[in-house]
Design goal:
two-stranded parallel sheet; 7 helices; about 40% helix; extended; alpha/beta; four-stranded parallel β-sheet
């Protein structure tokens, strides 16, 4: 079905956004126009939202959350767009408050750090929200045991690898990382930099 295809390929223009093909959108419009109820979710259905969502998804969430009988969990990364607007895309700054407010409608929120947890709870207190879900810290995982880690086939085994994971945008400070790596390479330090 188109849902599987959308998950594996994403929109044709390469942007990160929700995507529904034209026939799915028309079926939904016709169903609403005819007054037919939305498809019923099984009573055990739950929802885990691991990523920041934009206004299009935010509009669909309240009715969906109201129909779910199972757990409704969201992962909260940070409040950087509110804390540091000069290094964040203006659209992210504009929509982040609504996103953080909508997180209060979930049954539970997992924050990626104690600092993120405090930022979210502080924002909700500032808004004066009386009913908010539990917010637990669920740190992002890494397997750092003592066993040997696999390396890329073409990697030089003598040279360390510096891995930077994240979206390329000003707040992630990749320009500073590149300047620093360039200075270290010019000083003779040998290592590989991987941006993912």
């Amino acid at each position: 079905p188109w849902e599987q295809l959308a998950l594996s390929t994403g929109p044709a223009d390469g942007t990160r956004k929700s995507f529904w093909p034209a026939d799915a959108r028309w079926r939904g419009r016709v169903r609403r126009w005819l007054g037919r109820p939305a498809p019923v979710l099984p009573s055990s259905s739950g929802l885990v939202v691991p990523q920041l969502f934009g206004p299009d998804v935010a509009r669909a969430l309240p009715p969906l959350l109201a129909r779910l009988r199972g757990p409704r969990v969201a992962l909260f990364h940070d409040a950087i767009p509110l804390k540091h607007p000069p290094i964040t895309w203006p659209r992210s700054v504009a929509r982040h408050p609504a996103y953080m407010k909508l997180l209060a409608r979930f049954g539970r929120v997992w924050a990626v750090s104690q600092a993120s947890r405090e930022e979210l709870l502080g924002f909700w207190r500032w808004l004066g929200l009386e009913r908010t879900p539990a917010v637990d810290v669920l740190p992002l995982g890494a397997d750092l045991d003592s066993s040997p880690q696999p390396r890329a086939a073409n990697a030089d085994p003598r040279s360390p690898i510096l891995l930077c994971v994240g979206i390329v945008e000003p707040r992630k400070n990749q320009a500073f990382l590149l300047e620093t790596c360039d200075a270290l390479w010019k000083s003779g330090l040998e290592f590989e930099l991987h941006l993912v």
